[in-house]
Every structure is written in structure tokens, then in C-alpha cells.
Design brief:
Elements: H1 5-21, H2 26-47, H3 61-73, H4 79-99, H5 104-111, H6 128-135, H7 143-158, H8 162-166, E1 173-174, E2 180-184, E3 190-194, H9 197-209, H10 233-250, H11 261-274, H12 279-286, H13 291-312, H14 330-335
Antiparallel strand pairs: 1-2, 2-3
Helix pairs in contact: 1-4, 2-4, 3-4, 4-5, 6-10, 7-9, 7-11, 11-13, 12-13
Amino acid sequence: MKTVDFPKSLADFLTKYLPAERGMSNNTIASYRMTFILLISFMQEQKSIPAHRLTFKDITKTCVEEFLNHLETDRKCCVSTRNVRLAALHSFFKFVQYEWPEQLEECRKILTIKVKKTNRGSINYLTVDGIGLLLRQPDLSTKKGVRALAMLALMYDTGARVQEIIDLIPSSLRLNKPYTIKLIGKGNKARIVPLMEEEVVHLKSYMSKNNLLEDHASEYPLFYNTWKEKLTRAGITHILHKYATMARDKDATLIPQRISCHSLRHSKAMHLLQAGVNLVYIRDILGHESVTTTEVYARVDSKQKREAIEKAYVNVVKKEAPIWVNNESLLDWLKNF
């Protein structure tokens, strides 16, 4: 077997198969690419096999299992991250089976590696009052405050993923009635989400102050940094945490200690559900592939309804022990029942 088989297959997988045949988004491809950067680094550091000498025979099932354990123990990655890396490896070795049938047996072994079970965390979301408090924090006398309000309100109003916000351009918005926004989600799938008039007011104010309503700016990043480059995930998270901290100082009961950009998406979903919106419509707004994914919000809401009922429960039944509790003979009680 030629030593170029592995690098050629990996290059074809990342540059041809994923984008052209599978239609994967740039973000997914970047995630897969990082998996192989970590794997190649592991092989060099732990197995003393430099990248230019790496071949298929070096990457066995045992080796992959050691790599996954390395991610958890040495790199302190969570189980979810481990499973994401394994999914990338599974996808690659499914591809290899057809490109290099000689590797079929080892590919089959690697594909038998199971994903680990993870504990499903609770959905972290804010109440309507919490969202209101958060959005009152930006200082609208400053450009950054106007940008923060427009962006955070848009994230909540549309239930958008953070990457969908990052990728927005002015031409994604329809600022005439009916107000809508075009979001590009996972797998480059586009969806149209309605905008509320109150949100459009904030957007127009922000865009006007930054000359983003001009025709020449239609392809510029909608939200950008000091260097006119689109904001990063870290940048948006920093903005959210800044105003969440300010809001928490005013009322700690409304703002959870752990909050992320996805919390705004969860909040929108929960508020739509609580308002009686059909799960099918919520699925379409969030861009879920299946309504099954959206049902998690219904399960969480049912649990909270039970908790609310239990807190409000008033025991109207007289607290007396059943007659048989103090009866010396349960059998006698049953006979006389």
C-alpha cells in the first residue's frame, strides 16, 4: 500500500466528498478537519508517527479508541465532544470503504466503536421577564449599545443559532411589511422567519447609524467588530455575558448563572410553546430537521407545569391515617371491608 493513500483519501474527503457529495456546511467541514488535526497530532506525539509517514495500517480500531480516551483524559474534553470527533471518524471510514476496499476489514472494526451515552442537561432558558431585563441593559447612547440591543433582540426574536447571526448580511433582511429574515442554518439550509415590528425598529436604528441601509453595504456583515469583520462566536458570547452580568446585578432571580447564546434560542422556543404555538411552527422557526427534536421543549414545559402545580397544591383532604394502618390484623380489616 502506498503511503499516499491516507493523505489523498483525507484530502478528497474534506475537499470533494463532504462539500460536493454530502453538501456539508463550512462549519461542519471545519469541525471534521479539526478532528483529523487532533488525530494526526496524537499519532505524532503519542505514537511517534509523523504526519508524512502516516498510513491506513497505523490507524487501527485500538488506535482510534486510544485517541478518543486521550481526548477525554488528557485534553479534558466532555463526552459530547468525544462523540462529535467519533462521528467525524465514522463518516471518513465509511467513505474509505468505497475508495479503498482493501481497508474494508479495519474500517468495519472502527465503525463498531459506539458513541458514549451522555447525561442530557436541563434546558437553560430565561423567562419573559428575564429577557426583558437583559434587553434593557445596553446603553443606547453609544454605538456598541445600539448594536448589542439589535443583535441580542434579533437572536431572541428569531431563535437563531449564533452562527446564523454571524453570517447575516443586510440583504438577508426584508425591512418592508411583511418583515422577514432569511437565516442559513445547518447544512446550508435556508429558512424564512418573520420579524416583529419592535425588532425592526431596533434593526433600522442600528443599520442607519452604521450606514448599512445603503445599497453598497448589502453584502457587508450585519454585525461586525472594530475592523469591519464579522463578529466571532467568542465576541458575541462576550457581549451577551457583559449584559447578563449587568442584568443579574439588578435581579439575580431572573438571570441564571450559566447563560449562553443558545439560551436565547431556548427561551424563544419555550415562550412560543407557552403561548400555545403549535410545535410544527416552532420547528420551522428554529430550523429543526424533525419535530421530534422540538418536542424536548414540550417535555420540559410539562415538567415545569407539574412543579408549579405541586408548589401551589393545597391539601383539602383531611390528614387521617387509613383505618387499616392501626388495625392489628390487615386480614381482619380486609374481611370486614
